[in-house]
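Support reply, case 0932

Customer input (verbatim):
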Amino acid sequence: MMGAGKTRCGKRLASKLGLPFIDMDHAIEAQQGQTVSAIFARLGEDGFRQMEHNWLQQFVASGEEAVVSTGGGAPCFYSNMDIMQANGITVWLNPSLKDLTERLWRNREERPKIASLPNVESLQQYIADLLEQRTVCYGKSRIVVGEAPPDMDWLVNSILQLD
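Our regenerated output:
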């Protein structure tokens, strides 16, 4: 989910595992020469989701090993979660609705899907609705991290046990 801490956690996890870290959104931005917001404005959500899917397929085909932070919606479109499950270990960071709302409200201008929401209450309802839609998809993750920020040693050990 957006605002869950994927980038922060992913960077720390990659460092502990001795792997490169890749933020899917940043990789797509570099590939396209545009921000995610500009891509959304130009192609809409469907176009952006197709780009995510294409990027994921290309990454898997490359055979590169890395810790990848996907966009919050990426696992829930096309066959992305199946691709990720077949080629790596998936982790769902699942902070509380309150924490997500606070984090996202502070940085909403950077996120095209929530930038125009008028108040915190509308953001919280949007997040709750999105989580309801995505929980089945996210729940397929091999590791689920609850509301507390993950302890990196625990997370690394959990991943190594599954590997």
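We compared this against your earlier run and they match. Two observations from our side: Residues 107 and 113 are 12 Å apart (CA to CA). The chain has one domain: 6-151. Please reopen the case if you see a mismatch on your end.
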